[in-house]
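User: As part of a screening pipeline, I want to sanity-check one entry by hand. Below is the sequence and the SMILES for magnesium ion. Please return the complex as structure tokens so I can compare it with the automated output.
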Amino acid sequence: MSELKLALRLLLRDWRAGELRVLALALVVAVASVTSVGFFADRVRQALTRDAHQLLGADLVLIADHPWKPDIADEIRKRGLAFAETAAFISMARYGEASTLTGVKAVSNGYPLRGKLRVSAGLNLPDNDTDVVPLPGVAWIDARLAMALSLRLGDAVEVGKLKLTVGAILTLEPDRSASFFNFAPRLIMHVDDLPESGLVTTGSRVTYSLLAAGEPEAVSALEKALKPRLGRGESLQSLENARPEIRNTLDRSQQFVGLTALLAVILAAVAVSLATRRYSARHQDAYAVMRCFGASSGRLLRLAALEFIALGVAASAVGCLIGFGAQFVIAGFVTELIGARLPVPSPLPAVQGFLTGLALLLGFALPPLLQLRNVPALRVLRSDIGLPEQGAVLAWGIGVAVISCLLVWQSGDLKLGLTVLGGFAAAFLLFGLLAHFALRLLDRGIKSTARAKGGGSAAPSRTMWRYGLANLKRHARTNTVQIMALALGLTAVLLLTFTRGDLLATWQATVPPDAPNRFIVNIQPEQKQPLLDLFKANGLTPPPVHPMIRGRLMSLNGSPVKADDFAERDRRMAEREFNLSYMAMLPDANEVVSGRWFAPNDAAAFSVEEGIARRLGWKLGDTLTWQVAGRDYSAPITSMRKLNWDSMRVNFFVIASPGLMDAAPTSFITSFHLPEASAAFANSVSQRFTNLTVIDMSAILKQAQSVIGQVVRAVQFVFLFALGAGVLVLYSALLSTQDERQKEAALMRSLGASRAQILSSQRAEFAVLGALAGLLAALGATGIGWAIASQVFQFPYHVNHWVWLAGPLAGLACMALNTWAGARSALNHPPLLALRES
Amino acid sequence: MNPIIDVNRLCKIVPLARPPGEAVVTPAPELVILQDIDIAVMAGESLAIVGASGSGKSTLLGLLAGLDLPTTGSVRLDGTDLATLDEDGRAALRARLLGFVFQSFQLLPALTAQENVMLPLELAGVPGAGELARAMLSRVGLGERLAHYPKYLSGGEQQRVALARAFVMKPKLLMADEPTGNLDAATGAAVIDLLFELNAEQGTTLLLVTHDEALAGRCGRIVRLAAGRIVPDPVEA
Ligand SMILES: Nc1ncnc2c1ncn2[C@@H]1O[C@H](COP(=O)(O)OP(=O)(O)OP(=O)(O)O)[C@@H](O)[C@H]1O
Ligand SMILES: [Mg+2]
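Assistant: Here is the complex for your manual check:
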């Protein structure tokens, strides 16, 4: 018989005996967790590469925050490439009394150059590819806009000064990007209508794109020719760097979700280790006997290795299948975010899954198995000789090394991986230490109360409790592991239930109820007074209106500002156009932290927000030069301000002293609190002033929350794997003491203890374990919540006191379940059998 | 003819843990478990090793089986000096020669009776292990209990499974350490009867460790151990 066949046979027998189930389950959970994320990320990545030109709508896209000079378009046409252009912005779409914020895209004939728009003749009707774009005078709208304004085909939707006929329902826009404002409903119109719309005015933010497509050589020649000609605020996307926002989001969320998946792997590793340890302990006799039969230790190790590898491969395969199924769920949660049709995943993540499974075996099952090799055959004659203690390096070193590699691999970042590893190690250590000391403290407490009682005959039930509590210390090591495992699992649960809710509630509570909830942007100078009059006519207090000037930073202390001088993150900030303002009074919710606010007779000056100053390297006294509409404005920084962003007011990073920029082309912006009862006022504003954009902050917040909600749901789903692994750790930790408990229970019963007495002794022990673990979990969740609130979002965190009750209760519930399962098997085991097995 | 077991001037000495606080300069304390043992067993012979508890019987058996090595002296099994073999070599020798029966049965709890008997065959790569095991279990009277796990078998039945497991390999030499130690007198006697029957059928050399004089008396020869030394037979009263 071949060695493999024998190993498989041994595997089947061990499986039947239930020896390997926890181990296999742990592997399945770990692999499923990793592959679910892996398969999903793979689909998105494939979509990005395979469909890159569709996602781009072209082979090459030039993007600018200002209109392109005609010579670039000419250059594209001259080279014989297909050409199209688009302009995208946010505006109000109106129909009848209703109006809503809409993402408008004005497109030229030929758009998109790659991929196709899909349209239908009405809501929920079958859709088709189309090769054309809306004619001038026509708008295609998406289902959300149709529903928001109750529009049907043929209705006239108003945008700016235009009245466009709804010609089709837009069902797919391949190059629609997943940025924030794109969660607004969509309207596509012809670019020729744009000038008459009156929407492109001073201060309006429009993204102008030029699209090119053609032979690869011609495209890359064009790319080479245009790259050096790009100016400030202009960028170029080609197939290689298409859709950086999706790529970044993907990379970041994959790191995040991937690390969540690794939480399951780490917990599974603990379960694998515990389960294999138990396997080794239970197989010592078998190994000794087999060595007596003449099997060499090397051969036995080989057989065991084969057996475990076979198990690992089978479990990994099951895990991959589950992971494959699970990725559909993840994709389901975030389809809106991705907004693209995803291809079938490649088999690559499965390879990753198998590697993870086998790595876990190597790191955490191998050391205990290697131990078995050292079982002295002499054990058959003298059962008192057992395994020598294994060196810590071998026992844990391999495992820690394997986990580190997995973490670094998964996060794709050495520093991040090691940081997370350190975090986990610290959490494990902290929980372990706390559990250890708590157990010792308890033990001392019990001993002293026992002494105080003077050893008099206590009530029998009390005795059983004492016996149970004494067990706490006797099983100190496994109990510590049990507490650690349960505490980690519960921390995750509490974080996702209590802490998440608390964070949201705390944050919402920081926003005062009368905080502004509407912004109006694009107000032209001549509209300022009529708008304020409209406020008065509707019985509303006219809000402060601030000038807003769009300028680009040209130089700092006389030396030109180059994007390359900044770190990746800050580059966009330095590159893009700033919203500047000027005013005499320090606005509300602003606080000068250094320097002095403008005094009436001061020379021209700027006041800047301290955060942006830090990021862009501005100091008090530095001279900033801004370019607005071709003219430069220079002045020194005379004050730094701190902003309260929660105030929801209009805030400016850079404010000029009055007089300096008054001549620059300006639009105005205002924010105000609109009571729900007067919500219709927003509609009359957009009806009167068609170019104005009224932004409903609560709607945007809702959208943001729904986006966050999608990601949270995906993360939560992946957390389920971690939870499953946590339960397995708990179970395997329980199993590792079960043999001993069973023997004790049998012994006690043969000495006359009743079922109830044994149960109460186990209850005592588990109650303490569960409560301790729950308490630690509450501590962990609160700590993390505090860290997130104060470090990431920077608002004070109010501890929810219920968590201190919920944690221990949940711990007790878990333990009750475990006791029930464990004790049942111990009690249903006739004492005779348990004693005989020993 | 060469003896199948040949023990020469065998000693087993183990170091003892130094009592705490004792000066390191004093020589490390030692425990002499076996001293100057000479035994020769011819093929087909049956030999009993008797002695009080703690006299070193199990230790000697372990040395004879090559599970452990003597401190001094030598053990030759079927002409091979165990000291010349490494651990794997000794295992191979055991696989070729030895069968074992233990006081605590040592059946694998996760395996059925039949699988327990199959295990040595499978490890040796003998084809038809299942059939052979079944036949052997029928021979020891457990043909109906093939699929039962050890914990559902009585002590006597378990020891019969262990006998089947030992004899299914047709070993040249069978070593038994207190095979009736965990059984009541009647069951023990039945197991011993079976042991001697199988022994006779297969012409196995038998090495039996026991403190039961009656049982020892059924063997062809008796070696008595006391405090780690071979002592002469007591004079018949
Ligand atoms: N490695 C060792 N280290 C210390 N002492 C040992 C070691 N091996 C055996 N002994 C001791 O040697 C003595 C003989 O042990 P052994 O098991 O051979 O006795 P035995 O004759 O089989 O006794 P029993 O009839 O009770 O089984 C015992 O006192 C035992 O404790
Ligand atoms: Mg003994």
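Points to compare against the pipeline: Chain A touches chain B at residues 1, 6, 9, 13-14, 16-17, 19, 285-286, 288-298, 376-378, 380-383, 833, 836-837 (CB under 8 Å). The CA atoms of residues 76 and 95 of chain A lie 39 Å apart.
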